[in-house]
Amino acid sequence: MLYRIVNFFGGRCGHLPPTKHPQTQGKVERFHRTLHRKVRRQLVLPTTLSDFQVLFDAFAVEYNQVRPHESLAMATPGERYQPGSRAYQPKPPAWEYPVGATVIKLNPQGSFDYWRRRYFVSEALAGQHVQLERLPDKIVVRFRHMYVREINQTTGRSVTLLLPADNPNVYTMS
């Protein structure tokens, strides 16, 4: 889910594949097993959140800086880590839709009104600006670089999408 949300907002998560990827599930299970063992080996278990945080901080140092990993040819993650080339932007610039595009702001419930009908897009996008692309019998909703919803104007039914808008095999507006 995190992968999809980050992609919605134009981010790139090359290191976060979809959650159903088998290798990822195995890595996550292994990490949790290692963390669980570390916590269970404590003579006195933490009782407060701040005590747990101290334990987790110590675990992070051991896991990333001390303990070698077989998958890294016995190197530590800290030895292999390289910072990304892009700086983190806590407030990314506003998305610019094409000139002349129909852009609307979704209401607090993630819906919009169009020709006396209310259409739901996504709660996650409530309050965001989206582009409406009209086809003969459909409205396609685009958020930034992704198509996120297809609405059948005849039936009022809609389908959730997560398709890149720059893919020539998807919707072409002509």
Describe this structure in words.
With 174 residues, the chain is α+β, with helices and mostly antiparallel strands. The chain folds into two domains: 2-80, no CATH class; 102-164, no CATH class. The protein has four helices and seven strands. The chain has helices spanning 2-8, 22-40, 49-66, 77-80, and strands at 102-105, 111-114, 117-120, 129-134, 138-143, 146-152, 158-164. It has a five-stranded antiparallel β-sheet with strand order 1-4-5-6-7, covered by helices on one side. Strands 2-3 form a two-stranded antiparallel ribbon. A hairpin with a 2-residue loop joins strand 2 (111-114) and strand 3 (117-120). The longest helix is centred in the N-terminal third of the chain and has 19 residues, at 22-40. The chain is elongated. 7% of the residues are buried. Residues 1-6 and 12-17 have low confidence and may be disordered.
